[in-house]
Amino acid sequence: MRGICILVVMLVAGTAGAQPVSFELKGDVQVGQKPVLRVTAVQQVTDLRVELKRDDGKDFRMRQPALARGQSVMLPIGDGAAGQASYTGSISAQIPGGERWRDELSFQTLVRAPIKVGYDAEHLDLDRRVLQFTLSRPAGSAELVVTGDDGKELGKGAATYKKEPAGTWLPITWTQPPGTRVMTMKLRAVSSDGLASSVELIPWSVAIEHEDVSFATDSAVVDPAEEGKLDASLSKIAEIVKRSGRFMKMRLYVAGHTDTVGPDGKNRKLSLDRARAIARYFRKRGLALPIAFAGFGESVLKVKTADGVDARANRRADYVLGPASAAPPFKGPYLKARAAWQQLP
Question: What residue segments make up the domains of the chain, in order of their start?
Fold first, then answer.
């Protein structure tokens, strides 16, 4: 924000050398502070006055009874309201034994308040390459840099807004080569009054394709004959970790599901126990990543069926790699199911 804290002065009476006071502005401050006009007496003055009008119509007046030669006074400007503001007005003083001196003032200030950026997985479309976010202040512009799972920059995006109100979902798109996967997104958003905030979003996740383990009826014990399926899945997980783990700390999520046979409560517990058994198997085989597991029972069906239908496709588990520092990379019906994720020791 170049120029924000430059004081622009237009002289009305006298020359620069004849000014009885000098002044400078500290116009760029953090929220909780006020911009300050420092006035220093070049010669003795009395009845120093500063009268200002802000661009929102508010008036501000400050007065100092007297200043001896070389003495300074700090005059706070405005009311501390966050954002950029423009002021016009005058500074005047009485010169002992002479006429009243007066100059015009014109300057800008910036009170910097942190602006909040809102985002959730429901407002990110990786296929269409559209991110939507919110700001806590009217919107100005945004820039986006997208990085792939190899740590290299994939593309960029930029958008300009029209002072949309705080809380409005704001779209920004980006370019990206085909066949690549987004790992991180660095967003810099600017409000209409010049305040900026930068955030890093991590939408990266990978669903591991695998062959589902078959459990005996009402059992959560991994049969030795099924261990090969889990070993094959573990090999795929290890490949992804080897390629991308140096760029981000990861967590494995195991989500268990059942068909609609039996009571919902029983199915929730059964799916949780089976997800835990799979997670423990991965840990036993040496997977050092943090592992979370949850049981969704019959609440997130892969194939929609009526109640009491024995559907093999619904008796399954999802294995998803996601960032360890973010929320579980599940949305839609998973969020509505409200299953509690547990962490494997």
Answer: 7-112, 117-201, 206-343
